[in-house]
Amino acid sequence: MPRNLLGIRHLTQDDIQELLSLSADLKLRIIEGREVPNLSKEVVGMLFFENSTRTRVSFEQAAHYLKMKTANFSAGTSSMSKGETLKDTILTLRYERLNGLVMRHRMSGSTALAARYFGGPVLNAGDGQHEHPTQALADALTMIERKGSIEGLQVAIVGDVEHSRVARSNAWLLSKLGAEVRFVGPRSLMPSHTQMLPGQVHYDLRSGIEGVDVIICLRLQKERMADGMLSSITEYAAMYQVNRESLRWAKRDCLVMHPGPINRGVEVDDVAADGERSVITSQIENGIFVRMASLYWVFTGDEKPSPPPVAKAKAPKAATKKVATGGKKK
Predict the structure, then answer these.
(1) Which fold has domain 133-282?
(2) 13-131+284-300 adopts what CATH topology?
(3) Which of 18, 182, 214, 318 has the maximum number of C-beta atoms within 10 A of its C-beta?
(4) HSE-up (13 A, CA, CB side) for residue 47
């Protein structure tokens, strides 16, 4: 059975720690100019049925660093525009001898369907309102670098929780690693099944972010909203925007995060997005190394790589596992 990365919910704590450790080690290798694993025999398909900048480019960059070949797929110019089903598209790509798939789709559960029929590793780059596992891993790596550990942190996820796959993946990951999670936003943008998610619900911004270590701001996904879910953007910004004033309620060293794309003046102001507390650009950069680790993790399966030479620079505290490159020590 191939190893897939479809979501955080069903990963063990050890799986998550392993992925974060691999990510930190690969980042160190790239920064120091040392060898990284060579997966040049693998061809991975990039199937993005929804628009993407950060996730798609970082997966392509991750594959480039690992010397993997990529096959880009465009739904608009494929046979799906002629009525071909997703299942038949996946089967076609399987028998065109692709070795793995990175997939984003508007339908929740689409990547699980792909994994069922593809026969090789499938990585979820975001499926509907379900999960976005590699974004949560990038966020976690960023927190570890800045805070040393996730255990014991208080993290507020603010905004459109109802439509956010990032919120779900982050909630599962953070709770599994010992953080306290708060969901903050208007009732109309809060899932009806919040009791099934690992976190406390706050409808007031001040109570939701008071004393927290990290704030993760979410984009208003207007393209997924039904009419009437939000009275007005202006009212939302007045009540839930993370800005110079509202940040006073959080801890002085609170991190401000956003998975992007950012709607400046709505979820955050310029002070929150660009200030000294912001780690948004670190999230983007760490997305490359997390996706390198994810590709390596699914393609090497249960192999137990031998440890490489000890790095000179100090890695984040959670980074203990090393990856094998097959090369000689430098």
Answers:
(1) Rossmann fold (3.40.50)
(2) Rossmann fold (3.40.50)
(3) 214
(4) 28
* Distance in angstroms (rounded) separating the CA atoms of residues 116 and 112: 6
Which residues are marked as active site?
A: 54-55, 82, 104, 132
Rounded CA-CA distance 240/187 in Å is 12
Structural tokens at position 190: 């809060």
Contacts of 102 by beta carbon, 8 Å cutoff, 6+ apart: 44, 45, 46, 47, 59, 123, 125
Closest residue by Cα to residue 221 from 316, 132, 299: 132
| pLDDT tens-place values along the chain, 330 residues long | 789 999 999 999 999 999 999 999 999 999 999 999 999 999 999 999 888 899 999 999 999 999 999 999 876 556 665 578 999 999 999 999 999 999 999 999 999 999 999 999 999 999 999 999 999 999 999 999 999 999 999 999 999 999 999 999 999 999 999 999 999 999 999 988 877 889 999 999 999 999 999 999 999 976 655 555 667 889 999 999 999 999 999 999 999 999 999 999 999 999 999 999 999 999 999 999 999 999 999 999 854 433 344 444 444 555 445 666 655 444
DSSP string, 117-145: HH-S-EEEEEETTTB-HHHHHHHHHHHHH
181 CB burial (10 A radius; 0-12, 13-18, 19+): buried
Domain boundaries, the chain: 13-131+284-300, 133-282
Instruction: Tell me the C-alpha to C-alpha distance, in Å, between residue 100 and each of 31, 69, 71, 116.
Output: 27, 11, 10, 13
> 257 near 251, Cβ under 8 Å?
no
Per-residue model confidence as pLDDT tens digits over 226-242: 555 667 889 999 999 99
pLDDT of residue 196: 80
Specify the pairing of strand 122-127 against strand 100-105: parallel
Give residues with Cβ within 8 angstroms of 261, minimum separation 6. Answer: 53, 54, 219
Please check whether the two domains, 13-131+284-300 and 133-282, share a CATH topology.
Answer: yes
pLDDT at 57: 96
Partnered with residue 158 across adjacent β-strands are 184, 217
